[in-house]
Design brief:
This protein is mainly alpha-helical. It is built from six helices and two strands. The chain has a domain at 26-125: Orthogonal Bundle (Arc Repressor Mutant, subunit A). It has helices at 3-33, 40-51, 57-64, 68-80, 102-123, 128-153; strands at 84-88, 96-100.
Amino acid sequence: MTSSQAAARDVDSLTAALHNLAWTMRHAAPTQAGVPSVATSDLAVLKGVLASPGLTVGALAASLGLQRPNVSSSLRTLESQGLVERAPDAADRRRTLVQPTPRARNESQAIASAWRSVIAEAVEDLPQEDVDVLLRSAAVLAKLNEAVRTRLAAPAG
């Protein structure tokens, strides 16, 4: 096996591990937090609203790299669940701004807390050497996330 084949295999293993962990956490965390689950597409929009409250639908869609009609559909669902609200812009009443509700903020915090608890408990089951590697890798994983987001946001070509 060549070094490039070994590197490709390692990247495949990392990709699978990250995907599996994200999938497990995404589906288990709401239950652990005692809050209703949100569809994946709606969750992406909700995370965008929580991260950047007060955007217009168009600006939110652009920031997420999604089509405006898809974001509008998700917002209708999230509004019906009491997680977001739309209100006219005080500076320009023609514009409508999207805000998370207190319920959305509370549930987001509950899910984050559930994630921390589950991960903290799971880490206790690992050998200390693995825990040390995991804790040191947090900064690298944050950099990887940013690099992936930058590549995904770049125009194709």
